Amino acid sequence: MARYTETLKVERGGFRIKVPESWWEFDVRPESRDDSIRRMVDERVRSHPELAEYRDTYVTFLRKAAADAWKSGALYCGCMAESFGGDTPITGSVTVSLVGGRTRDGAPLSTDPAAIAAGLAPKEAKKDGDSWRKVTTVDIPGVGAVARTYGIEDIAVPDDSLGRTIRAVLMQTFIPVPGQEGKVALVAGSSQVLDLADSFFDVFDAITSTFRFTG
User: Fold this and answer.
1) How far apart (Å, rounded) are the C-alpha atoms in residues 117 and 140?
2) What does the domain layout of the chain look like in residue ranges?
3) What is the pLDDT of residues 42-96, one digit of tens each?
4) Cβ atoms 151, 132 nearer than 8 A
C-alpha cells in the first residue's frame, strides 16, 4: 500500500516523524491550510498528469482531514490519497497531538504505559461487522514501551449536532512526553477503507515507529 524506501521526515514542536514520500503533509492552521493544500495538489498533478481526474477528490479529502485535525488539537497531519486503478483514491491519515489529563483530585494522570493501557477499554465484536478495539503495549525503538489501541471503531463526527459517527480503521499510540508530567503525544492513524484494515494497521505501526522527541 505504501512505499517505505523513500521517507519524508517531518519536524514539529519537539518531535519528528517519518511518512512515505508519496504522502501529503501540511500546516493545519485555518489561515494557511487551504492555500497550502491547493498548491500541493496542483504541484502533484503537474508531476503526475494521470492524477488530474482525482484533483477535486484529493482537495476535498485533504481539506477535511486538515480541518478535523485542527479541531482535535493536532500539531501535525499527514495524509495518503493514492489511486490504484479504482474509482476513488484510497485514503488514510496520521495526526500527532499533545494531550494530558488529571484525576478527580487534580493530580496528573500517570503516563506509565501499563497504567494507560489499564485505563483503556477493549471491545469485542459480537457479530461480523461490529466495531471492535484491542488494547496492548508495544516497544518503539529509541522511545521505549508505549500503550496502544487498534481496531474498527465508530468515531464521532466533529461539530455534528446530531451526534453522528463514522466507522474507521483506527490506531492510537500514547507516547509519554519526557519531563512533562501527565502529558503524552497521541499518534493516531485512521482510514475509512475498512477492507484494508490489516494493511493500514501495518502502515500506521511503521509510521509510528519512526516517532522521536527532539530537543
Assistant:
1) 15
2) 7-213
3) 998 999 898 888 889 889 989 988 988 888 888 889 999 887 666 677 899 999 9
4) yes
